[in-house]
Design goal:
53% of the residues lie in helices and 13% in strands. The protein is built from nine helices and five strands, in the order αβαβββαααααβαα. Strand 3 (71-75) and strand 4 form a beta hairpin. Helix 2 (39-56) runs antiparallel to helix 4 (106-116), helix 3 packs across helix 7 and helix 4 packs antiparallel against helix 5 (126-133). The longest helix is centred in the first third of the chain and has 23 residues, at 2-24. The termini are far apart.
């Protein structure tokens, strides 16, 4: 009897572990290739990612890649960048890159980046957003104004340029490391629905009313 009870206990424990693992694995990775001053990127982050994350963030893994339609080169260890919306965008992209390195909590990441992207002039809201999101801005500023920030942004550029299919516009939205045109089109206007379609089992939060916002 003791042996049977132990076997039963082990079986139940294994089932619980497998169930917990399955639930923990029920998450969609959202990769966003973007640039800080792109109006469409700003709209997508603030009007789609932020509200969707507020509803189903525990089912999302947000992977942000700030760079977009930029270019960079390195000579004797010194990087030079050209960004679609000018030098300020390059600087903001570096700030985002450094923030993504030094902010380890996903909730803070989404909150901070979304706060920054409310305005094209991120300098006006940088301090306010850092306080709101409880972010160590000194560390981020130090990073973004140094070779470290250059290297991080260049790495994002390399990742952007090497992605297949080629990133030709921003925001480019990718789920679970695979780009799909239909996913892109749906996510642009209804990210919540796009993610919920990929979740199995579908959580109750997906039954919330979805507000369609055009960016």
């Amino acid at each position: 009897m003791g042996t049977i009870s132990l076997s039963f206990f082990v079986g139940v424990l294994s089932l619980l572990v497998c169930t917990a693992t399955a639930q923990g694995g029920n998450a969609v990775t959202l990769t966003l290739f973007y640039e800080a001053n792109c109006p469409f990127c700003m709209g997508f982050v603030t009007q789609q990612i932020q509200p969707t994350f507020d509803k189903i963030g525990k089912y999302m893994k947000v992977d942000l890649v700030p760079y977009g339609n930029g270019r960079h080169k390195v000579s004797n260890g010194t990087y030079t960048f050209t960004c679609q919306h000018g030098p300020d965008e390059c600087r903001y992209n570096k700030i985002h890159s450094c923030a993504l390195k030094y902010i380890t909590d996903q909730n803070q990441v989404v909150d901070f980046i979304s706060c920054l992207m409310v305005l094209k002039n991120e300098d006006k809201v940088l301090n306010e957003c850092a306080k709101k999101s409880n972010v160590d801005l000194a560390k981020i500023n130090s990073c973004s104004s140094s070779h470290e920030g250059d290297a991080l942004l260049a790495a994002n550029g390399d990742r952007t340029h090497s992605f297949k299919p080629k990133v030709t516009w921003v925001p480019t939205i990718v789920f679970n490391d695979k780009y799909d045109d239909d996913d892109q089109q749906l996510a642009e206007t209804n990210l919540l629905e796009a993610i919920c379609k990929k979740l199995e089992p579908k959580p109750n939060e997906c039954d919330m009313k979805i507000s369609v916002i055009h960016i």
